[in-house]
Design brief:
The complex is a heterodimer of chains A (171) and B (460). Chain A is an alpha/beta fold and 171 residues long. Chain A is built from six helices and five strands. In chain B, strand 7 and strand 8 form a beta hairpin. In chain B, helix 6 runs antiparallel to helix 15. Classes of the chains: A alpha/beta (171), B alpha+beta (460). The complex binds iron/sulfur cluster.
């Protein structure tokens, strides 16, 4: 471990993304997200992610927000384990009938003020699964939605942009 | 092959005797289908039994039990003599969990909404103090009615749906579906498409294995591995986006070939990724191997016996960490893997550590495969037109998690009449219940992550 840690000390930080285009977008977003988040909620915003029947693709990209390249926590966003600690519910999937009650209960357990962000094309209107008897057809069919982030799945950069938009909308 | 009850029954008995492995068991209105594989010759056989009822296979061969419960939930097919008649994918009624009896037992219900960013499912632990006596899974929360949507869908829509059965395996699913369609229609696809599909599939395997290796270590609170593996995963996804136009490579594999050829500078991007992995990954492997406090958590935890792995024909790292040598790329096998050199790493310990090591070794194999693919990549077109026609066929494709089975029946109107996609998790989830027994509750996340079963792929 010492070897790896020493290497990390002398190497440039990995958080510096490799492709130039991404780096620019990320840097731009970084400062904007930071400013908006501070204005709205001081130093932090807690997010509870709820998979309401996604294919897991959206979760993979939400996970990526936490990796050292995007490092969401440096902006004051934090994923929390309990809805009782959350300001934002980040909901994915077409909302299957079998997840409807759990989603409603999670919403009820989240203290006010709270926001609901529907992530991915499924969460918007059911996406490819629209019309299925087993699905409600989007988060809006079950909860009031403050923002949709489009994509199948949305990339981490798109997700970051979406979180920024949420802050702007409720300024 | 249309069979009679007698033949169906006979095949069930041969499964019971250990001669045949269960590959799939599914239904459609008025007909039950069963796919089995000879454990020695790897010959695959599909049997279809018309009617609303069929003799239970689960009665003879437990891996079939959940599949039979699902057939009743989705199509009202009755498995006669079935050992468990509770609903499975269908919710609504209060669920009768199996009793666990004994002194000082308490229950811990977990889910469907979990603490982390993971898929929903319910786990019911019966524990004595910290020791788990029984775990019972309750799945089906992500049931989206995928099979019903596939029935009658246009080929284009069906392919997109197939690629979203389990988002982490979108390439493998799209590939399994496409192979089955192409076989059903008798379509030959260009050699270049075959090789590029393998390239996408190996990149998918690399991304998922990096993610899993990091995540297992993270569940043992060893976050430095998680950070570095997450970074490697991100590099794979970015390369995938560069080459295939989508980070997860969704909708890139289509029936008939590939949606698009590689862009220019693809080989430079691949070469850079390979150099990166070759320079960074060995240090991480060494770190994993030398950290005793980490191995203290992974060694001897969640042991899966070879007998159970074999009985359930557990695919992927779950099977290969418990002595099973099966890999669909090799047996029955499909091109271009017959032209490529690779090992199928196998170990016998069956614990969390073994499942991590299989992934570590498979990273090495996939990197070598990517190099061989780029070196041997044929030129030419990447798609051919699909002939009209009807037909039925199957495919078996090795995803990162294990073998994905696809069965497709094409109608003459270029629509999918019926399709069934069987996730490897069907034969891994039940084993997770077995391996946690006698372990402490706190080791469940480690065991669970080391299996990394799919919820969405299973719930359909
Ligand atoms: S939007 Fe796409 S990636 Fe997200 S859950 Fe739906 S199908 Fe999967």
């Amino acid at each position: 471990m010492r070897k790896l840690l020493l290497k990390s000390v002398v190497q440039a930080p990995l958080t510096e993304p490799a492709p130039a285009a991404d780096a620019a977008a990320l840097a731009e977003l970084a400062s904007q997200v930071e400013r908006a988040a501070h204005r709205r909620l001081g130093r932090s915003l807690s997010i509870r992610e709820v998979d309401a029947g996604s294919c897991n693709g959206c979760e993979l990209e939400i996970h990526a927000l936490n990796n050292i390249v995007y490092d969401l926590e440096r902006f004051g966003f934090r994923f929390v384990a309990s809805p009782r600690h959350a300001d934002v519910l980040l909901v994915t999937g077409p909302v299957t009938r079998h997840m409807e009650e759990a989603l409603k209960r999670t919403y009820a357990a989240t203290p006010d003020p709270k926001w609901v962000v529907a992530v991915g094309d499924c969460a918007r209107d059911g996406g490819l699964f629209a019309g299925s008897d087993a699905c409600k057809g989007g988060v809006g069919a079950v909860l009031p939605v403050d923002l949709h982030i489009a994509g199948c799945p949305p990339s981490p950069i798109t997700l970051l942009k979406g979180l920024l938009a949420l802050m702007e909308k409720h300024r | 092959m249309i069979v009679e009850r007698r033949q169906w029954q006979h095949v069930g008995e041969r499964m019971h005797a250990g001669e045949l492995a269960l590959v799939g068991l599914w239904g459609e209105p008025g007909c039950a289908h069963l796919a089995v594989m000879d454990r020695h010759s790897y010959g695959l056989m599909v049997l279809s039994l018309p009617g609303e009822r069929f003799p239970s296979i689960g009665r003879l061969h437990p891996p079939a039990i959940r599949l039979e419960r699902t057939m009743r939930d989705l199509y009202g097919l009755e498995a006669e003599g079935a050992p468990d008649v509770r609903p499975w994918l269908k919710h609504g009624e209060p669920y009768a969990f199996l009793p666990a009896e004994g002194e000082s037992l308490h229950q811990i219900p977990v889910g469907p909404v979990h603490a982390g960013i993971i898929e929903p499912g319910h786990f019911r632990f019966s524990a004595n103090g910290e020791t788990v006596v029984r775990l019972e899974e309750r799945l089906g929360y992500t049931h989206k009615g995928t099979e019903a949507l596939l029935a009658g869908a246009s080929l284009e829509r069906a392919a997109r749906l197939a690629g979203r059965v389990s988002g982490d395996s979108t390439v493998a699913y799209a590939l399994a579906f496409a192979q089955a369609v192409e076989k059903a229609l008798g379509c030959e696809i260009p050699a270049r498409a075959i090789w590029l599909r393998a390239l996408a599939a190996e990149l998918e395997r690399l991304a998922n294995h990096f993610g899993d290796i990091g995540a297992v270590c993270n569940d043992a609170s060893f976050t430095i591995m998680h950070a570095h593996c997450g970074w490697l995963r991100e590099q794979v996804l970015r390369t995938a986006a560069q080459l295939f136009g989508h980070r997860l490579m969704m909708d890139c594999v289509v029936p008939g070939g590939l949606r698009a050829d590689l862009p220019r500078q693809a080989s430079e991007a691949i070469a850079a990724l390979i150099t990166l992995i070759r320079t960074r990954f060995p240090d991480l492997v060494e770190l994993y191997d030398e950290t005793e406090s980490l191995k203290d958590r992974t060694v001897d935890t969640g042991v899966l016996t070879a007998a159970l792995a074999e009985q359930y024909a557990a695919g992927g790292y779950v099977g290969r960490a418990s002595g099973r040598t099966f890999d669909a790329r090799r047996t029955p096998g499909y091109p271009p893997y017959d032209r490529l050199e690779f090992d199928v790493p196998t170990v016998h310990a069956g614990d969390v550590n073994a499942r991590v090591w299989i992934r570590i070794r498979e990273v090495g194999q996939s990197v070598a495969l990517v190099e061989q693919i780029m070196a041997g990549l044929p030129s030419g077109a990447v798609a051919s037109a699909l002939p009209a026609g009807a037909g039925e066929a199957t495919a078996l494709v090795e995803g990162f998690r294990g073998d994905i089975f696809a069965w497709v029946r094409m109608g003459a109107d270029a629509r999918v009449e019926r399709a069934h996609l069987r996730d490897p998790s069907w034969f891994q989830w039940p084993l997770l219940e077995a391996v946690i027994e006698g372990n402490i509750v706190a080791d469940f996340p480690l065991c669970n992550k080391s299996f990394n079963c799919s919820y969405s792929g299973h719930d359909l």
